[in-house]
Amino acid sequence: MRAAIAAAALGLPFVVLALVVRARLAAVQPFDESVIRAATDLTRAQPGLRGALLVWQECFRAGWVNLAVTGLCVWAWRRHGLRTRAVWAFVTLMVAWGLQLVAKQLVQRARPVVEDAVAHAPGYSFPSGHAANTAAACAVVTVLVWPLLGPRGRLAAAAGAAVVVLVTAADRVLLGVHYPSDVVAGVLLGVAVTGASYAGYVGTTPRVAPSDTAPSDTAPSDTAPSDTAHAADAADASDATHPARGG
Fold first, then answer.
1. Which of the four CATH numbers 1.10.10, 3.55.40, 2.60.40, 1.20.144 does domain 2-239 have?
2. 195-233: per-residue pLDDT in tens?
3. Tell me: the pLDDT tens digits for 12-53?
4. pTM of structure
5. DSSP-derived 3-state class of residue 25
6. Where does the chain have alpha helices with state H?
7. Which of 102, 112, 147, 204 has its CA 20 to 30 A from that of 35?
């Protein structure tokens, strides 16, 4: 129930934007096209910027991002015993990646048409796959490593994730391969999937393993009363050769 409520609340902005774009309402298209023209003019005038944007685009393709997150999940599981978090992070990212592909087929928005284009991309435009996948990846990674970080580390992780998502969103518009509404929708989708999934993860974890709640002296970083999901991770960590340590 908790996951369903979160999905409805977090997914509503994405659904509304998808319907607006699908209906080609005049309120969105002129704005999108004016931003694309200004953004691509800026990129063409700065060859160094174009090169940096293309490198960022390649580095944050879904294949590379998903591979990196998968490796991090394996590391968190094997090294720190965060089995439930690792499985949750991997599954959530795959769901977000799959849903953006489905959304593209449902909306079927054509890519921006730019004179003297600075980059080309295949497939449909809405939502931005780069934005959706990167937003979901950054969110699940932040949640995955949260118990392993101290206060400063957590702040740095959250800030770093936000910067990566914003730069990826800007990259798509500056290269002229996505409208602004595409990247906004991508971020909304990635955040909605992660938020709904995490709500379900927190809500179901105690019922899945009610006897696995570790005492606070076993894994102090994973048993905070305010985060019920930490209880399962504490049990995972206590079974691992190298338990997680907070700091």
1. 1.20.144
2. 989 988 876 554 444 444 433 333 334 433 334 445 555
3. 888 888 888 888 877 788 889 899 999 998 998 888 898 999
4. 0.79
5. coil
6. 2-22, 29-45, 47-59, 62-80, 83-107, 129-145, 151-174, 180-208, 229-239
7. 102
